[in-house]
TrEMBL record:
<dbReference type="GO" id="GO:0005886">
    <property type="term" value="C:plasma membrane"/>
</dbReference>
<dbReference type="GO" id="GO:0005794">
    <property type="term" value="C:Golgi apparatus"/>
</dbReference>
<keyword id="KW-0812">Transmembrane</keyword>
<dbReference type="Pfam" id="PF03381">
    <property type="entry name" value="CDC50"/>
</dbReference>
<keyword id="KW-1133">Transmembrane helix</keyword>
<protein>
    <submittedName>
        <fullName>CDC50 family protein</fullName>
    </submittedName>
</protein>
<feature type="transmembrane region" description="Helical">
    <location>
        <begin position="293"/>
        <end position="315"/>
    </location>
</feature>
<dbReference type="InterPro" id="IPR005045">
    <property type="entry name" value="CDC50/LEM3_fam"/>
</dbReference>
<keyword id="KW-0472">Membrane</keyword>
<dbReference type="GO" id="GO:0005783">
    <property type="term" value="C:endoplasmic reticulum"/>
</dbReference>
<comment type="similarity">
    <text>Belongs to the CDC50/LEM3 family.</text>
</comment>
Length: 328
């Protein structure tokens, strides 16, 4: 056990300290997380479509039309039991850029469509009174690839893996931060969004966002939109796409082992940003998804404290030697 100097006001004392405790914590986190948490990362940035075209040629947004599809087949051989989550991942996508992060108006997302302060230049259509809904760079660059996972059963039948959006976001987030404007009388949601236009990179109006997919919400209350609007702090990030619906027979215990095909509706042109895209299947531990960063952070802190302990130990030994010489 090493000893380090405890420096206070007016006194210096020696107290025992063991930096190996941080290394032990690292080992516990790393081993426990690796034993319980599983993940499968499927990179598909430059996949080839079903008609033989390269997705590198896809430079336009189109939400989601399914005209450019990639089919990627893979095997699951590990025990993906329990609650399974599906994420999409982006690398080299800087949602943490200050101008990008600030280009939004949270009041508008509560249904007050004329509130577009802070969204310039994507606040109003130039020369008109029409506002963008939603406004700003964050909403304009919304991720819009969509996925379907197909399980090839042992008896030759293909089964679509059931996705769900239940419990993906707390109700307080949905109710307090995102609300559609209320139409007047018997009007439709699109009537409520009158005098607004969709962002330049969108291919559908906000009032129709999610209208063709059951259970994901429409407009500002669309689950994919709400998750995208929560910006990431780092340029390499993942966002929750769906969860496994374990109420469906055949998937109550998780994902069965076997062959799968991931069907990708390739709508989001990441290559023009130099970004990379992936689809991630995870079985998470009670600590959440696999976090190697946390484990390596502990080992880095442990090594740092070990070096500091050695330094203070050297100072302590030197002081003792000087005191012995002075007494002699």
């Amino acid at each position: 056990m090493f000893k380090v100097l405890e420096i206070g006001i007016g006194n210096v004392s020696v107290v025992p300290y063991n930096p190996k405790s941080f290394l032990r914590i690292h080992t516990i986190f790393y081993n426990y997380d690796n034993n319980l948490a599983l993940e499968l990362v499927i990179k598909y940035t430059n996949c080839t479509t079903t008609v033989g075209n390269s997705t590198e040629e896809n430079s336009d947004f189109s939400y989601p039309d399914g005209t450019a599809q990639c089919h990627l087949t893979f095997a699951i051989t590990e025990n993906y039991t329990g609650d399974i989550r599906f994420y999409y991942g982006l690398r080299e996508f800087y949602q943490n850029n200050r101008l990008y992060v600030e280009s939004r108006n949270d009041v508008q997302l509560l249904g007050k469509l004329d509130q577009v302060d802070g969204c310039k230049p994507l606040d109003r259509v130039q020369g008109t009174n029409f506002t963008y809904a939603p406004c700003g760079f964050v909403a304009n660059s919304m991720f819009n690839d969509s996925f379907q996972l197909v399980f090839h059963g042992s008896h030759g039948g293909d089964i679509v893996v059931p996705f769900t959006t239940r419990n993906m976001l707390p109700d307080r987030v949905k109710k307090r931060k995102y609300r559609n404007p209320k139409p007047e009388g018997n009007g439709t949601l699109c009537d409520a969004f009158a005098n607004t236009v969709r962002p330049p990179w969108w291919q559908t109006d906000i009032c129709k966002l999610g209208a063709n997919v059951q259970g994901i919400g429409v407009g500002f209350e669309n689950i994919d939109f709400m998750i995208w609007m929560k910006t990431a702090a780092l340029p390499h990030f993942r966002k929750l796409y769906r969860m496994l619906d374990r109420e469906v027979d055949g998937f109550r215990d998780g994902l069965p082992n076997g062959m799968y095909t991931l069907v990708i509706n390739y709508n989001y042109p990441a290559t023009w940003k130099g970004a990379e895209k992936s689809f991630i299947i995870t079985r998470e531990s009670w600590m959440g998804p696999r976090k190697e960063f946390l484990a390596f952070l502990y080992i880095a802190v442990g090594v740092f404290l070990l070096l500091v302990s050695i330094l203070f130990l050297g100072i302590h030994i030197r002081q003792r030697i000087l005191e012995s010489r002075a007494q002699a």
